[in-house]
Amino acid sequence: MRFVDHEIQGLNPQRPIDMLKLVKLLCGWKLSPGDQALEPEVVEQLGFLKEVLRKGKLINHEQFNEILLMLNQHRITRHFFRFFFGPRRNADTVSLEQIKDGVQKFRGYAMLCYGNFRYAFTKLARLSKPRFDRAIENRCKLTPGQVRDTYRNRPRRIVRVRQIAKDKTWYIGYLSSSKRQIDFQTWLAIIYTLGYTTKHRILRWEEAQSWTEQCQRFHVSTRSEIASRFGPQTLRRVKGKVLLQSRRYTQEVLERAQRTRFDPSRWAPKLKDVFDFLESTRLDLKSTRSQGSRNTDVYLTWDYMDVYVATSMRERWEYEATHQFIEQVFRRNKKLRALKVRYFDPTQSYSANRIDKGLVEALMLNRVKCTLYLAQESETLGKDSELASTLAQGKPVIAYVPEIKDPRSHAKAIAKKPLDFVVKRWLQLEAEEIFTLPECLKELERNFRIRYKGKTSIKARGFLDHKNDLFIKLRRETSSRTFNLIGAEEAQIRARLGAQFAEMCEILAVAEKHYFDKRADTLQKAHPLAIQVNLTNGVANGVLVARNADQCAQLIYGLLTNNLTFHLVHNEGEGMTELIENITRCPYRVVTDDPKLTNSFWNFYLTGERIN
Question: Full-prediction pTM beyond 0.70?
Answer without folding.
Answer: yes
